[in-house]
Design a protein that fits this description.
By secondary structure, this protein is an alpha+beta fold. The protein has nine helices and nine strands. α3 packs antiparallel against α5. The relative contact order is 0.15. The mean pLDDT is about 95.
């Protein structure tokens, strides 16, 4: 038997913890809190920090929404749930750093339940890393952390969810991954509610320690206009993915969610340049050559 109240309690606490740690890391700005209601049922709290010393924009949103009919994006793989009532609770965050040597990151943890007589429930979520000027040791440490979070939940769980992440965060029209991956999972309900919830907590609790370690190492790295321009250009890929492929964005818009909160993941500054190509042998070319295709980082 599932327990959405327990999940909600954990996710609210996770939102608080992540925001507190990001404020300490930034040392200048704090989060603006925006509580909102959804006309169709439910609501949430969006928190955004902007123009900080370390983070150009960071958004950490919590939502608990419900309704009488599942949105199309949520029933695409489960047509039998079309027309069923639903509840969805989740935390979603995107962090866009100021320094191009600090990667952008995204994380999401969510729980769905649908129907009344025999309710169907599942967990989803994960996290991924999008560097502009990658450091190989940072990426290895990121994936070691992800593997450790999966320990004790099946011998193949890291490899399975790492592969799913590589395949999900892939821009087919560009022929490249959004970044260097991490974990992505959906439809998690094997072993019952308690075991599934324990897995989601393990992954959720592992996110900030891994990202904090990278931020602290790279936040003071010198950079100039060239690096910022490349960061703005690569942020364009982030926008393309979120608006074309991201199921969470589609779910939010199709379910009548709050547009400002749904699109908080978009970067504050971004640019597109027609047919831009990296210079041969440059650090920018190294990103394309070595880091934007799926590989075994461990």
């Amino acid at each position: 038997m599932s327990n959405i109240d327990k999940v909600k309690e954990y996710l609210l606490a996770l939102q608080n913890r992540i925001c507190s740690e990001l404020e300490l890391l930034d040392g200048k700005e704090t989060f603006l809190r925006d509580v909102w209601d959804r006309p169709g049922g439910g609501g949430g709290e969006t928190r955004v920090m902007a123009e900080g010393k370390v983070f150009e924009k960071a958004g950490v949103g919590f939502s608990h929404v419900f309704g009488s009919e599942m949105p199309p994006s949520a029933t695409k793989a489960r047509p039998e749930l079309a027309g069923k009532n639903f509840q969805a609770v989740g935390v979603s965050l995107v962090i866009h750093p100021l320094n191009p040597y600090v990667p952008t990151t995204h994380a999401n943890f969510r729980f769905f339940t649908a129907g009344e007589k025999k309710p169907v429930w599942w967990f989803g979520g994960g996290y991924d890393l999008t560097p502009y000027y990658p450091f190989h040791e940072d990426i290895v440490a990121w994936h070691e952390n992800a593997r450790a979070a999966c320990d004790g939940f099946g011998t193949d769980s890291y490899q399975r969810y790492k592969k799913w992440c590589d395949e999900y965060f892939y821009l087919e029209h560009r022929g490249e991954t959004r970044g260097v991956g991490g974990l992505f999972f959906d439809d998690v309900n094997d072993g019952g509610f308690e075991e599934s919830f324990r897995f989601v907590r393990s992954v959720g609790d592992s996110f900030m320690p891994a990202y904090k370690a990278i931020v602290r190492k790279r936040q003071s790295h010198p950079f100039g206009e060239r690096q910022k321009e490349f960061q703005y250009y690569r942020r364009g890929r982030y926008v393309e993915f979120n608006l074309i492929y991201d199921r969470g964005t589609l779910f939010g818009l199709q379910s009548g969610g709050r547009t400002e909160s749904i699109l908080m993941s978009l970067p504050p500054r971004v640019r597109w340049q027609y047919n831009w190509q990296p210079e041969p042998g440059s650090p920018e070319e190294k990103l394309y050559a070595d880091y934007l295709q799926p590989r075994d980082w461990l």
